[in-house]
Design a protein that fits this description.
Order of helices and strands: EHEEHHHHEHEEEEHEEEH
Helix content: 25-40%
Distance between the termini: 14 Å
Radius of gyration: 18 Å
Number of helices: 8
Number of domains: 2
CATH architecture of the largest domain: 3-Layer(aba) Sandwich
Structural class: alpha/beta
CATH class of the largest domain: Alpha Beta
CATH superfamily of the largest domain: TPP-binding domain
Low-confidence stretches: none
Shape: elongated
């Protein structure tokens, strides 16, 4: 059974109504990303950060997996599939995918501000005064700008074993996630799905570009894989 590694970004969830992480103007839902997605932003205004993620969490709980999520999950019937996502939503899980690494954290979890291994499921609003078992304030379980990406090494090891690499809905501009493409074996087939693909067909051997939204693009991928 061939091993497919699927790298997904914000474009994967856009058709479920979730805004992309950073718009062209550098804002996320009207906020400078450094105000709501950095340790400095947290230190400067914890209430703003908590309110921002409370709104994102509510939005996520009202959203559903789209056709692309469901189609990727269905690939498990014929392939071993590992998903490495930059998204913080749980739409891959709800669609039925079983092997998922979240590089940038998860919106439906929180963690201790002191001990990053103290992680708790969370599907309601988070407030100042909500404490971890170590007595510290809870914060969103999100990898903010300037923080280490704890799942990166595992993602690299999985990518190295890919028979096929599929990239969906990501600009490949956010590092270190964008570096994963360099860890595949020589001549591994790459399928790049994005309506505005930021990659040259000549940049990688055995690269197929599908210039489509995630839902229709994954449909074409399934046809190509046979």
């Amino acid at each position: 059974m061939k091993n497919i590694v699927v790298l997904t970004g914000a474009g994967m969830s856009a058709e479920s109504g979730l805004k992309t992480f950073r718009d062209a103007n550098g804002l996320w839902e009207g906020h400078d990303v450094m105000e709501v997605a950095s340790p400095q932003g947290w230190d400067a205004n914890k209430n703003l950060v908590l309110d921002f993620y409370n709104q994102r969490r509510k939005q996520l709980l009202e959203s559903e997996p789209n056709k692309a999520h469901l189609s990727v999950a269905a690939l498990e019937k014929k392939y071993k599939v590992n998903i490495i996502t930059q998204n913080v939503d749980d739409l891959h899980e709800r669609a039925g995918s079983t092997n998922i690494i979240h590089l940038h954290g998860e919106l439906l979890k929180v963690r201790s501000v002191y001990r990053e291994e103290l992680i708790y499921p969370w599907n309601k609003d988070l407030h100042l005064g909500d404490l971890a078992d170590d007595g510290s304030q809870l914060r969103p379980y999100i990898v903010w700008f300037g923080e280490a990406v704890p799942m990166l090494d595992k993602a690299i090891e999985i990518t190295k074993k890919a028979d096929i690499l599929v990239i969906i809905g990501t600009s490949m501009q956010v590092y270190p996630a964008a570096s994963l493409i360099h860890y595949i074996q020589h001549a591994t087939p790459i399928y790049f799905i994005d309506p505005d693909p930021n990659i040259l067909a000549s940049s990688h051997e055995n690269l197929t570009i599908i210039s489509e939204m995630a839902s229709t693009g994954v449909e074409k991928l399934v046809d190509l894989l046979g």
